[in-house]
Design goal:
Structural class: alpha+beta
CATH architecture of the largest domain: Up-down Bundle
CATH topology of the largest domain: Multidrug efflux transporter AcrB transmembrane fold
Radius of gyration: 33 Å
CATH superfamily of the largest domain: Multidrug efflux transporter AcrB transmembrane domain
Number of helices: 15
Helix content: 40-55%
Strand order of the largest sheet: 11-10-16-15-9-12
CATH class of the largest domain: Mainly Alpha
Number of domains: 3
Number of strands: 19
Strand content: 15-25%
Distance between the termini: 19 Å
Largest sheet: 6 strands, mixed
Shape: elongated
């Protein structure tokens, strides 16, 4: 055990060097880091919202709007199904969270209800043959179609998770890795952006639904009907931002949707010199887009973003290549922003801002100062204790191991681009404060072995061998606690858990392996007759 093998020495030296290299950028100014050689690491710790300041946003997912949107789409499916079966109906509308319609022929009410039960909605999980909607006959030949409450609750919960994923993709596309959306409660999402002091800029990126659809323009709608507010069945009136017309009448059914996009990027029109957004469809989208443009040459189709027409070009020829471009009043910045939103995907459900605030960095500066003072005081107290109890040799070796431990913790956190929060500082201080526990266990076991009459070398070997089981068990409980906090906690709790988890492994490595190598070197060089701690 006390033989300083080359493998152990190699691991200790490599760990110390890497810890120093990855910690060093945190101690250097930015202009010095930029001038470091290419092979040198340059990543540093990120300061969290509570230390650096930034923006805090609390969103609630609008599940009512999600339900109404699903019902509106379902109403179009009902219209199609009944037309295909030659069942006449009137008064199809979404009212009070359900779809209502009246079957014209009393003899067809049962046929209509059975047809809708088999085709409308989606299969209900766990219920063979069940659907996630109910079709209920009512008075005066009416049918009411509504979601099964449990099925819609599950869909709403899934939409919240999907919203979080879309937000994360939008943020990752811009490279802002410090923004981490987390779920709060049933339908809320908390977003903390360290270093981003403009909540409005953040909202414009995150909060936009970015639902893109391609819908045919209904040029056959009579202008007097439109002026009177009489919209033809199957159509809808959408406002326009293309600068050509204030609004358009378009078909409700979408030809192609944004989910079929595989890429979107900003570009320039060679003729006008203006900014455009270039896009490409997947296989299904390419076929649908090609078929639609082939069948509607000379007609217009609307490119709709969040229920607003941003462009309504005339189809001059079949577009079969699966790619195209969106023109409009784009600036380079707005074209790039729209490209980011389209690549990340649309939010499945709209969101409303419940709370927003900017967090100043003053609290962070005070916290860093207080944390630094706490760390220094704790380190000095630990140094004094170890030197008084175990002397300058054994106590000094423990402090060297503690220094290697600190280098490895900061180095690993810098390498993983971890965000350091105020609880993370607490976790760092706690880890360093208890790091010498393993050395205390080893040294006390050596003393016990010496008192039992064993030789010096046997006592030192037994100190490491018999203390290892206790050290392992104690640190495994820390690992379990850290893993639980990391998986179940959020925000600052995750920061504390991550720091603690890293500290457990570096502490065991430094307190056992580093101490063992240093003591082996000392023993080989000094050939002592007694231990200084005896």
């Amino acid at each position: 055990m006390m033989n300083s093998s080359r493998v152990r020495v190699f691991f200790v030296v490599i760990a110390t060097i890497l810890g120093l290299l990855f910690t060093l950028p945190n101690l250097l100014p930015a202009n010095v880091r930029d001038r470091l050689p290419a092979f040198m690491p340059k990543s540093t710790l990120h300061l969290g919202l509570d230390l650096q300041g930034g923006s805090y946003l609390l969103y609630s997912v609008d599940t009512v709007a999600l339900r109404d949107e699903r019902l509106t789409n379902m109403a179009e499916d009902i219209r199609t199904q009944l037309h295909d079966k030659n069942i006449a109906f009137t008064d199809l509308a979404v009212v009070s969270g359900q779809i209502g319609l009246r079957i014209t022929d009393p003899a067809q009410v049962t046929d209509a209800a059975n047809a809708l039960r088999q085709t409308v909605g989606a299969p209900l999980a766990g219920v063979p043959g069940g659907r996630d909607v109910t079709v209920t006959p009512g008075a005066d030949q009416r049918l009411l179609v509504a979601f099964v409450p449990e099925a819609f609750d599950a869909e709403a919960s899934k939409a919240v998770e999907q919203n979080i994923e879309v937000i994360r993709r939008r943020v990752d596309t811009t490279g802002a890795k410090e923004i981490n959306p987390v779920r709060q409660g049933k339908n809320r999402i908390v977003i903390e952006a360290a270093g981003e002091n403009d909540p409005e800029k953040l909202k414009s990126l995150i909060g936009q639904t970015a639902k893109l659809t391609f819908q045919m323009v209904d040029d056959g709608a009579a202008q007097e009907d439109i002026a009177a507010g009489r919209i033809p069945p199957g159509d809808e009136l959408l406002a326009s931002t293309d600068g050509i017309a204030p609004s358009y009448i378009v078909k409700k059914r979408s030809v192609v949707t944004g989910e079929m996009l595989t890429n979107a990027s900003p570009g320039f029109d060679q003729q006008s010199g203006g900014s455009v957004v270039e896009f490409r469809f997947n296989g299904l989208g390419s076929r649908r887009f090609g078929d639609t443009t082939r069948q509607n040459i000379g007609k217009r189709f609307a490119i709709v973003l969040d229920k607003k027409v941003i462009s309504a070009p005339v189809i001059e020829t079949a577009i079969t290549g699966g790619s195209g471009r969106i023109t409009g009043h784009f600036t380079p910045e707005s074209a790039n922003e729209l490209s980011v939103l389209l690549r990340a995907g649309a939010l499945p459900a709209p969101m409303k801002v419940e709370e927003q605030r900017s967090v100043g960095a003053e609290l962070g500066a005070d916290a860093v100062k207080a944390g630094t003072i706490s760390a220094v005081v704790g380190l000095v107290a630990t140094m004094v204790f170890m030197l008084l109890i175990y002397g300058f040799l054994f106590g000094g070796i423990s402090l060297i191991a503690l220094g290697v431990n600190a280098l490895m913790i900061i180095g690993v956190m810098s390498f993983t681009q971890a965000t350091l929060t105020l609880p993370g500082i607490a976790g760092l201080i706690l880890t360093l404060a208890v790091a010498v526990d393993a050395n205390v266990l080893i040294y006390e076991r050596m003393r016990d072995e010496l008192r039992s009459g064993k030789s010096l070398i046997s006592s030192m070997d037994a100190g490491f061998a018999r203390a290892w089981g206790t050290i392992f068990d104690a640190n495994m409980t820390h690992v379990f606690s850290a893993v639980i906090m990391f998986n179940l906690g959020s925000g600052p709790v995750k920061g504390f858990a991550w720091t603690l988890l890293i500290g457990v492994f570096t502490t065991v490595f430094s307190a056992v392996l580093v101490t063992q190598v240093l003591l082996a070197w000392w023993f080989k060089a000094a050939r002592p007759k007694t231990l200084p701690i005896a």
